[in-house]
Amino acid sequence: MLMNNNHSPAKAGRRTLAAFLIAGSALCASSAYAQDAKLTVCAIVPTTEIEYFATLLNEYQASGAKRNIEVTTIDSQNNPARESSAIEDCVSKKVNAIVASVIDPATSKASAEAAMKAGIPFILQGQEPEDVDWATGNVGYSEADMGRLAGEEVAACLKEKQPSAETIKVGACGWPQWPSTVRRIEASKVAVEKETGKKIEWVFEQECGTREKGDAAVSAALQANPDLRAVVSINDGSSMGALAAFESAGINADELCIAAPNNDLEVRQYIAGGKIYGTVDLNHSGITEAAMDLVLKVAKGEEIPKMTYVDMIKVTKENVSQWPTK
């Protein structure tokens, strides 16, 4: 019996090879599409009324664009319910990742964990794992380093303006509600003491955080300590409040040593004018670049570290021109 040529082993082999090549081509095309497809990310901040967070959203978009990542920016307007709803909406849209600065980690945890359970990585900005350890990964700065840099600025100023003083009075504007900001102000105090090499009399340490509270704290301290001339704070708002209190008391800015982190636009104007000694730039672009790199890694299925730190920069009159002042 003659074998049908259509069923010969040679032809069957050729058909199998052709099918394999076609399937392989389709697989490669699919893989290439997956690699070229634009990733999507939700970037969430508590409010855009604070300059730091408004700048952060803009930088997220810029950093995302460099990496072909589409970034949807969300302002929670300091409303926990709105924040939770935004996270749920991002989950429903099946974004590749969520990057968020949350209002309160305690109230955000449930929504964030639901997102991660749905397979969406949650990258937390502005919190260290020792305070919040439930995220896929954390990105931002060291609170202790931030405080240290501000304290070093106050110390440098005191060495210039009070070189012969044996004891120096200093005020500390803190924020006791959060362990992170407690670490920040404690590091500032240690740096002031260490870098001056002087005996430091801490005439007050209390909650500030805003211009109004900074003003009130320093105004009250001046009643009992009219020779107070130095304040280290947790943020620029407190610094500007401290300056207002000193000026209201008729104290010349040339005598003052004031510094804190944030590098807000308005405080840079005071630094350029010599009224506030310094601030600390929190490196918005460094944070967002690092965050988007983490997004690329998790999109590939790679593990990311529990904490990714970025460097910060001291800002004084010598280098403030590197940032806009208008």
Q: What's the architecture of the largest domain in CATH terms?
A: 3-Layer(aba) Sandwich
Give me the oligomer status.
Answer: single chain
Low-confidence stretches: 1-35
CATH-assigned fold name of the largest domain:
Rossmann fold
Number of strands: 12
How many domains? The number is 2
Share of helix, binned: 40-55%
Order of helices and strands: HEHEHEHEEHEHEHEHEHEHEE
Instruction: Write down the overall mean pLDDT.
Output: 90
Task: Please identify which CATH superfamily of the largest domain we are dealing with.
Answer: Response regulator
Number of helices: 10
C-alpha termini separation: 95 Å
Order of strands in the sheet with the most strands?
A: 2-1-3-4-5-11
Structure description:
By secondary structure, the protein is α/β, with parallel strands linked by helices. It folds into two domains: 38-140 and 283-310, Rossmann fold (3-Layer(aba) Sandwich), CATH 3.40.50.2300; 143-281, Rossmann fold, CATH 3.40.50.2300. It has helices at residues 9-36, 51-66, 80-92, 105-117, 143-161, 179-196, 211-224, 236-248, 265-272, 284-299; strands at 39-45, 69-75, 97-100, 122-125, 137-140, 167-174, 199-207, 230-233, 257-262, 278-281, 307-309, 313-316. The strands form two sheets. A six-stranded parallel beta sheet has the order 2-1-3-4-5-11, sandwiched between helices. A six-stranded mixed beta sheet has the order 7-6-8-9-10-12, sandwiched between helices. Helix 2 links the parallel strand 1 (39-45) and strand 2. Helix 3 (80-92) runs parallel beside helix 4 (105-117), helix 5 packs parallel to helix 6 (179-196) and helix 7 (211-224) crosses helix 8 (236-248). It starts with 8 loop residues before the first helix and ends in a 10-residue tail after the last strand. The model is unreliable at 1-35 (pLDDT under 50).
